């Protein structure tokens, strides 16, 4: 029996680092379907928009809806998880982490990195925005954050490849949970269709496919990039993808 007045265990904060169009929202759905887990969706998005001046879809709405002082965002991430849950899953976009945004808060988290072949990322991203460069898809920033997390942990953090998740959701997610020091829950494998209250306001532009989903769909054949500019971005991103894929959970 728990002694009267005993403190509750500290929550487990999981920082999942991904670029855009990388199965990141489906992964958030998987963790969010656990009854012991609260999720937060791209908490630094508005701070990134304010600091960078980037012209993203729904820019004004995002700035109005979300805290855009990165220091206050970081304090929230270090605070109690919503609903007092034991797990606090934080879906982070690597390209949001500008140099001006501090990193000290990362020491309180367990880190994992979600990767995807750059041609798949670019084919999906280009369907939503007219122009895309290397900085937009977050590969360079992901490598920097990977190295920082490795320094904090003293070893390489967990890496999950989107294609491997789609090929074996139960196996890869179970091994990911093991790396994060938490129990696997089979409820991560399927979820109800539709939006969530925890989704960012930008869901109206980006989440149409995931809102129709009820689980991880089989992987599709790799796309062919017809645009030479997109192919050049893919070539530039590939060495980073190949490096991180060497650490991917099988």
TrEMBL record:
Entry keywords, A to Z: Amino-acid biosynthesis, Branched-chain amino acid biosynthesis, Hydrolase
InterPro entries linked: Class-IV_PLP-Dep_Aminotrnsfr (IPR050571), P-loop_NTPase (IPR027417)
Molecular function GO labels: hydrolase activity
One Pfam entry name: Sulfotransfer_5
Biological processes annotated in GO: branched-chain amino acid biosynthetic process
Amino-acid biosynthesis as UniProt keyword: yes
Keyword Amino-acid biosynthesis: yes
Family to which the UniProt record says this protein belongs: Belongs to the class-IV pyridoxal-phosphate-dependent aminotransferase family.
Protein known as: HAD family hydrolase
């Amino acid at each position: 029996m728990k002694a009267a007045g005993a403190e509750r265990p500290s929550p487990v904060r999981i920082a999942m680092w991904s670029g855009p169009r990388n199965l990141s929202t489906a992964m958030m759905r998987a963790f969010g379907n656990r009854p012991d887990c609260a999720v937060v969706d791209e908490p630094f998005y508005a701070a990134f928009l304010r600091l960078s001046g980037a012209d993203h879809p729904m820019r004004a709405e995002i700035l109005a809806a979300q805290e855009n002082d990165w220091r206050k965002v970081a304090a929230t991430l270090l605070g109690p998880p919503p609903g007092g849950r034991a797990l606090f899953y934080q879906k982070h976009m690597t390209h949001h982490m500008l140099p001006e945004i501090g990193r000290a808060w990362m020491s309180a988290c367990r880190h994992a990195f979600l990767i995807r072949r750059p041609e798949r990322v670019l084919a999906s991203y280009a369907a939503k925005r007219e122009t895309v460069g290397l900085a937009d898809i977050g590969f360079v920033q992901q490598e920097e954050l990977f190295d920082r997390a490795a320094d904090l942990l003293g070893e390489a953090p967990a890496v999950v490849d989107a294609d491997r998740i789609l090929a074996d959701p139960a196996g890869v997610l179970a091994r990911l949970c093991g790396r994060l020091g938490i129990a696997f829950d089979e409820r991560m494998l399927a979820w109800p269709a539709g939006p969530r209250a925890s989704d960012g306001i930008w869901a109206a532009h980006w989440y149409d496919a995931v809102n129709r989903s009820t689980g991880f769909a089989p992987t599709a054949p790799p796309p062919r990039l017809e645009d030479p500019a997109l192919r050049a971005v893919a070539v530039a991103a590939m060495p980073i993808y190949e490096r991180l894929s060497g650490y991917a959970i099988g």
